[in-house]
Amino acid sequence: MNTAPAKAGWRFRQPSVIPGFGLTLGFSLAYLTLIILIPLSGLVWRSAALGWTDFWAIAVDRRTLNALKISFGTAFLAAAVNVVFGTIVAWVLVRYRFPGRRIADAMVDLPFALPTAVAGIALTTLYAPNGWIGQLLMPLGIKVAYTPLGIVIALVFIGLPFVVRTVQPIMEELDREVEEAAATLGANRFQTITRVLFPGLAPAIVTGFSLAFARGVGEYGSVIFIAGNLPFKSEIAPLLIVIRLEEYNYEAATAIAAIMLALSFVMLLVVNLVQTWSRKRYG
Amino acid sequence: MTNPHFGKLLGALVATSVQFGSLGFAFADTTILNVSYDPTRELYKAYDEAFTAHWKAETGETVTIQQSHGGSGAQARAVIDGLDADVVTLALEGDINAIAAKTKKINPDWRTKFENNSAPYTSTIIFLVRKGNPKDIHDWNDLVKDGVQVITPNPKTSGGARWNYLAAWAYANANDGNDEAKTKEFVGKLYANVPVLDTGARGSTVTFAQKGLGDVLIAWENEAYLALDEFGADNFDIVYPPTSILAEPPVAVVDSNVDAKGTRKVAEAYLSWLYSKEAQTIIAKNHYRPAKPDLVPAEDLAKLPAIKLVTIDDPQFGGWKKAQPYHFGDGGIFDQIYKPAQ
Q1: Nearest CB to B213; choose among A42, A129, A254
Q2: Which of A257, B91, B125, B342 could be B167's S-S partner, Cβ–Cβ 3.0 to 4.6 Å?
């Protein structure tokens, strides 16, 4: 770990071989302000117009709570599924050479590129009771499209590349010799995975999880087609925001958005803290 | 993903995409933008062509008409947030009222500017069922039976869906002698039979026709005929309930936009020509009900049978200004019929 410059304290001008610190810092701050801070503060400002009691009434409304539960719950499940299978996919792509590997590798990015509405419509067509997969699941009593399970499927699709693409580069840097050394020193395969490989990968996996999770919480385009959108059953929080907008109730819409933002922020903060902790522990 | 600037951004995006679409016509004399809702795509495609020819013959000027289609409420918000519309042709009076109230871009007396409350065409709500009508659906009370699955979009997000809801309400209200508790129970039972609430009318059509979900689709009359054309007339039957609602999709000139752009003359002509013989015939051919049926050849009217139609200005609703918040506002009747899952 390279910690030397940080020790130098909080001097504004960092001694660096490459000039331009002031300019790039100024640019970064201006850019972040323009792209992120101004729109988000507008959001908070607009919802603040409601006043605390109204804001709180919206926040604890059963419909809002249910929608938030569905949004965050399905996003969490989907991210968890992606962590397991995304890591396996990344492992296969990094460690094995097989025909079609490059195509498989490129395929991982497709959910990034595909318009989410297309993904939603395609998945709904597949999982609807008369779809290719849906009609196989129907006799088993499993309904996917128009249920929360459908939301999870859509979010798994959307979130997969986030996990694969964050874990993959770290895996590529893993030294095979370390595994060999572990084997020579008497570790069995399971121990090699849990004690040697996993600690190195954990931060990347956690990052992948949080990216996929954050993306899933805000996802609208694909979910709306497969969810069924029934209040209290399969209504996601972003849909509730759109409903409030349709009522020309901008304040309530921004209030729900602000609540989602705050919840996401807290969760990402926790994830970051876990990461710092795991780095300290394993790093 | 949603912040107060989102609507503006969306408006800008729509505006840009519309402008890109028009690059090919950069030499046209005048250009006007008609901001409309989803199911009128086919209607205005035909009408714009006819109007352009009419205007050329009448004045010698070339006019280019740009179309923007989307959900009625979303389109109204785009205009509120600055989309440069010359005319709006939306699904609900309430959406044009919202533009008038929030921006003053449209004069509050817009409904008096054109005939028939500024509604050059009307429509109604009917049923589309599977071929042969296996569940024997003929009237609204067949929709609340056990085992009947009803497909209709979410009235919160779809203008068309509000008409569906109100048509069911009007039926129940007439049948139980104005007993609101019973009417509410009836509508609640109907929505308990709805397995999916799509966000738009077209979405529901696809769910019913393509995904094969449900026994009956509550749909715009024109949307039902379009579904027959699109998905095959041998798969579905159209059923006319004995009573339904008269939907009057209104039109208006966006006053401050046309005055700023100097397009008032052509914009007003564009809307008033909708009442002409030629336009009324195009309207009937596209399965809308013309405001002046006497101008239209009988064979084009034959597909639009007369049924008993209740209007939104009927005392039980009291006009959009009253019905909108009462039924579809936050905590309104529609919100009340959905109970939290225990």
Answers
A1: A129
A2: B125
